[in-house]
Amino acid sequence: MKVKLKDIEQNDGQLKGLPRNPRYIKDDRFEALKQSLQDDPEMTELRELVVFPLPDKPGKYIAIGGNMRLRAMKALGWKEAEAIVLKEETPIAKLREYVHIDNFNAGRFDWDALANEWEKVELQHDGLVFAWEAIETLDDKLFSQDHESGSKGEKEGYITVKVHLPHELSEEDNKKAKTIIREVISKYPGAILA
Question: Is 3.90.1530.10 the CATH number for 2-103?
Fold first, then answer.
C-alpha cells in the first residue's frame, strides 16, 4: 500500500516499550543509498517499508523496518512509498522482534567472491563502502605464502601485521574496521587477530 512519507516518523523511541532504531547511516553510505534509490526506485516496491500505526496520532505511522531508506527517500523529496502496515493489535514484543530482524544482519561476506566475481564500482554504488585498496594489500602482499618473517620473536612461517586506526574514528567506525579486518584474515587458516 502507498503511504505518504510525511505521515511516517522514524523510530526515535517515541512508542512506549520500543527503543529507537539501533542503526544509523551517514556520509558516503547515505549518499550511496540515495543514489541507489534514484537509480532503482522499483526496489522500494520489492522491499517495502514496514510501519506501525501510532496510537496517539491517527493517520500517522512509525517506521519499524526501513528507517534509513525512509530518511533517504525524504532527503530526495519523495512524497510516498510502498509500505506494509502492521495491525494495531501487534504486540510491542513482536515490534521489537521485527526491529531486531530488520536491523541485525546475519551471515558474513565471502571476500573472495566479492573481490573476484563482483565489480567494485557496482558494490560501492549499492552502498558497500570500505577501503578496497586496504583489503587488496592484505590479500596480495601481507598474507603472501612467499613472504618470510624476519621479525625477532616470531614463529617461523608467520608474519605479524599491525593495523593502526586513527584516534578520531568513532567507536562504531572502529568496530566496522575491525570487522573488515577479521573478515579478511578469516580465510587464512591459523590467522588470528590479537
Answer: yes
